[in-house]
Amino acid sequence: MHKTLNLEELIAKKNKENVDTDDPDYEELYDLIIPPGTVVSIIYDIVEEFGLEPVTRKMPVNIVNSEDREILVLRGPLEKVQAAEEFLYKEMKAWIEDK
User: Fold this and answer.
1) Residue 59 and residue 69 in contact, taking contact as beta carbons nearer than 8 Å
2) Fewer Cβ within 10 Å of end Cβ, the chain: N or C?
3) Per the domain annotation, does 8 fall within a domain?
Protein backbone atom coordinates (compact mmCIF):
# COMPACT_ATOMS: atom_id res chain seq x y z
CA MET A 1 0.00 0.00 0.00
CA HIS A 2 1.33 3.47 -0.84
CA LYS A 3 0.76 6.77 0.92
CA THR A 4 -0.53 9.80 -0.96
CA LEU A 5 1.23 12.96 0.16
CA ASN A 6 -0.69 16.19 0.59
CA LEU A 7 0.65 19.50 -0.75
CA GLU A 8 2.42 20.49 2.49
CA GLU A 9 4.16 17.11 2.70
CA LEU A 10 5.27 17.34 -0.93
CA ILE A 11 6.72 20.82 -0.36
CA ALA A 12 8.51 19.67 2.81
CA LYS A 13 9.90 16.63 1.00
CA LYS A 14 11.12 18.79 -1.89
CA ASN A 15 12.72 21.30 0.49
CA LYS A 16 14.47 18.47 2.32
CA GLU A 17 15.86 17.16 -0.97
CA ASN A 18 17.31 20.61 -1.72
CA VAL A 19 19.13 20.80 1.63
CA ASP A 20 22.86 20.12 1.58
CA THR A 21 23.32 17.95 4.69
CA ASP A 22 27.11 17.92 4.15
CA ASP A 23 27.23 21.69 4.73
CA PRO A 24 28.95 22.33 8.10
CA ASP A 25 26.35 25.02 8.91
CA TYR A 26 23.44 22.59 8.35
CA GLU A 27 21.65 21.54 11.53
CA GLU A 28 18.58 19.33 11.72
CA LEU A 29 15.87 20.93 13.85
CA TYR A 30 13.15 19.21 15.85
CA ASP A 31 9.88 20.45 17.36
CA LEU A 32 8.73 20.09 20.95
CA ILE A 33 4.93 20.38 20.87
CA ILE A 34 3.65 22.44 23.78
CA PRO A 35 0.34 21.05 25.05
CA PRO A 36 -2.50 23.60 25.04
CA GLY A 37 -2.99 24.98 28.56
CA THR A 38 0.70 24.81 29.51
CA VAL A 39 1.66 27.40 32.10
CA VAL A 40 3.18 30.39 30.28
CA SER A 41 5.99 30.89 32.81
CA ILE A 42 7.21 27.34 32.11
CA ILE A 43 7.28 28.07 28.37
CA TYR A 44 9.32 31.24 28.99
CA ASP A 45 11.75 29.29 31.19
CA ILE A 46 12.23 26.64 28.49
CA VAL A 47 12.86 29.22 25.76
CA GLU A 48 15.41 31.08 27.90
CA GLU A 49 17.17 28.04 29.38
CA PHE A 50 17.42 25.90 26.25
CA GLY A 51 17.51 28.58 23.54
CA LEU A 52 14.66 27.06 21.52
CA GLU A 53 12.76 29.08 18.94
CA PRO A 54 9.00 29.41 19.53
CA VAL A 55 7.02 28.88 16.32
CA THR A 56 3.50 27.77 15.44
CA ARG A 57 2.41 24.75 13.43
CA LYS A 58 -0.99 23.78 12.11
CA MET A 59 -1.95 20.41 13.50
CA PRO A 60 -5.15 18.44 14.00
CA VAL A 61 -6.40 18.74 17.58
CA ASN A 62 -9.01 16.15 18.43
CA ILE A 63 -10.53 17.76 21.51
CA VAL A 64 -14.04 18.55 20.29
CA ASN A 65 -13.69 18.30 16.55
CA SER A 66 -10.86 17.33 14.25
CA GLU A 67 -10.01 20.68 12.72
CA ASP A 68 -6.45 21.96 12.36
CA ARG A 69 -5.33 24.54 14.92
CA GLU A 70 -2.24 26.64 15.41
CA ILE A 71 -0.13 24.89 18.05
CA LEU A 72 2.93 26.35 19.77
CA VAL A 73 6.10 24.35 19.24
CA LEU A 74 9.64 25.04 20.38
CA ARG A 75 12.19 24.29 17.68
CA GLY A 76 15.85 23.42 18.06
CA PRO A 77 18.52 20.71 17.88
CA LEU A 78 17.56 17.23 19.06
CA GLU A 79 19.61 17.25 22.28
CA LYS A 80 18.15 20.57 23.42
CA VAL A 81 14.60 19.54 22.50
CA GLN A 82 14.93 16.29 24.46
CA ALA A 83 16.32 18.11 27.51
CA ALA A 84 13.55 20.72 27.24
CA GLU A 85 10.90 17.98 27.05
CA GLU A 86 12.18 16.41 30.25
CA PHE A 87 12.22 19.85 31.92
CA LEU A 88 8.68 20.58 30.69
CA TYR A 89 7.23 17.42 32.23
CA LYS A 90 9.12 17.89 35.53
CA GLU A 91 7.90 21.48 35.83
CA MET A 92 4.31 20.62 34.88
CA LYS A 93 4.27 17.79 37.43
CA ALA A 94 5.65 20.10 40.14
CA TRP A 95 3.08 22.76 39.23
CA ILE A 96 0.19 20.28 39.39
CA GLU A 97 1.33 18.81 42.70
CA ASP A 98 1.64 22.32 44.16
CA LYS A 99 -2.04 23.09 43.42
Assistant:
1) yes
2) N
3) no
CATH code, domain carrying 87: 3.30.1370
Domain membership flag for residue 67:
yes
Would 10 be classed as within a structural domain? no
* Segments forming the whole domain that contains residue 74: 28-98
Exposure pattern of 75-90 as b/e (b: 16+ CB <10 Å)? ebeeebbebbbebbee
Query: How many Å is the Cα radius of gyration of the chain?
Result: 16
* Mean pLDDT confidence for 47-58: 91
Let me know if residue 58 belongs to a domain. Answer: yes
12-52 pLDDT tens trace:
665 665 555 555 555 688 999 998 889 999 999 999 999 99
| Interacting residues of 69 by C-beta distance below 8 A, sequence separation 6+ | 58, 59, 60, 61
Q: Residue 84 carries which DSSP code?
A: H
pTM listed for this prediction: 0.68
